[in-house]
Amino acid sequence: MSNIGVVSSCSCIHPLVHLLRPSIQKKGLHTAARLAAKDYYEVLVLGGGTGGITMSARMKRKVGAGNVAVVEPSETHYYQPIWTLVGAGAKKLATSARPTARVIPRGVEWIKSRVQELNPDKSCVYLENDKKISYKYLIIALGISLHYEKIKGLPEGFNHPHIGSNYSVHTVEKTWRALQDFKEGNAVFTFPNTPVKCAGAPQKIMYLTEAYLRKTGKRSTANIIFNTALGGIFGVQKYAEALLEIIKARDINVNYKRNLVEVRADIQEAVFENLDKPGVTEVYKYDMLHVTPPMGPPAVLLNSPVSDAAGWVDVDKETLQHKKYHNVFGIGDCTNLPTSKTAAAIAAQSGVLDKTISLVMKNKLPTKKYDGYTSCPLVTGYSRVILAEFDYNAQPLETFPIDQSKERLTMYYMKADMMPFLYWNGLLKGYWGGPGPIRKLLHLGLK
Fold first, then answer.
1. For the chain, which end, N or C, has fewer CB atoms within 10 Å of the first or last residue's CB respectively?
2. Considering the domain boundaries, does residue 108 fall inside one?
């Protein structure tokens, strides 16, 4: 099973398009993808996902396109947040994909290769075929890796019907097929015992499934089960309370501290470990199974000098500068920033990191501080979304002067239609740094 881990999977960027600076970047050719034409760049970006493309666009304007390179092996860039709706049949998979060549900023070199080793002490990295690239400044945006293989029987289980996963391009359409084929019985949804990108996504498809079954007259014969390794439904109390009301009203069964460890696809059984009782397992029969895979840092970051003990890039949580190497920076899912891993977080981080690097280049200390802002549009039906926004302290940090814990049709259209537009035309081109200024305006300067 291929791991698709370079693009953040939950986009919560705000679609205030009329306030967005018009893009001055015209579509055009960047340097052809290949092994690096040069062996030194002023700014080297590792990863061509959300964070990598965004920062390469910002760095191009700072040091010039010819001085920036992006290392990325994949030929396709995916807007993964829309996969929640693809898995529920509300969007087509093709709408989430663009050629990498089209999203890398014009003139920035695309090095179509994989990173094999980071050597920050010598300010260089090694790519495939032992190609060495040196840099003045390094931005690490390598995303997060999916590990379906860590669940016994799951990789081969995808060859059977009734199993899907919205986290991979290879399995998201299987979710929709499993939903359409469902007739009666247990529909089981999982959340793993690891960090994940977009922690709301595992339950979004559950709400959409429940809505679909109601719409198609199958709800009365369905038992919807959410087995999560976490101890609560959501990490922010305000939104957790709203979600629990929905769960109660829709008769959804939630089991906490349950971690999927095995799938027996031939007999349609899912085995969960009870985390409160180590070694004790529970078996659930399923007629539909949606799996959120275990996730972790990319392999190249494990035991790397730039990483903490767990393998995440070790950065200052306010400036995104590396704690040891002052010419190294991190952004997005691969970092140890203590906030949810979403594209909304990357948007806010990109604005801070831009300011940080600008000051470092002038031999000044960074002053701009990232407050942990992140967001997750919690899709609760085919026409409803709760727009959760919060900070490092798990406190709501809402942009609009309304109660965003309420399900709203307007927020659904933001998620489904406007956010993708802002992603492709604003964030990836380096013109969107999150809704902070808009929030301040709408709240009359008050937090």
1. C
2. yes
Token pair of 402 as six digits:
């309304």
Q: CA neighbours within 13 Å on the CB side: how many for 165?
A: 26
Residues in the chain where the model's pLDDT stays below 50: 1-33
What does the pLDDT read at residue 184?
A: 97
Q: What is the pLDDT of residue 35?
A: 59
Cross-strand pairs, 71: 46, 111
Could you tell me if 135 and 44 are in contact, meaning their C-beta atoms sit under 8 angstroms apart?
yes
Question: Please, are residues 211 and 384 in contact by the beta-carbon 8 Å criterion?
Answer: no
> Residue 447: what pLDDT?
52
Arithmetic mean of pLDDT over the chain: 92
Please give the Cα distance from 199 to 9 (Å, whole number): 9
Q: Which of 291, 323, 356 is the last residue of a domain?
A: 291
Mind telling me the catalytic residues? 198, 376
Per the structure, the complete domain to which residue 196 belongs is given by 148-291
- Whole-structure pTM value: 0.91
Domain CATH code at residue 226: 3.50.50.60
Task: Give one DSSP letter per residue of 260-283, joined into a string.
Answer: EEEEETTTTEEEEEETTSTT-EEE
On whether both 43 and 103 belong to a single domain, the answer is: yes
CA 438 to chain centre: 23
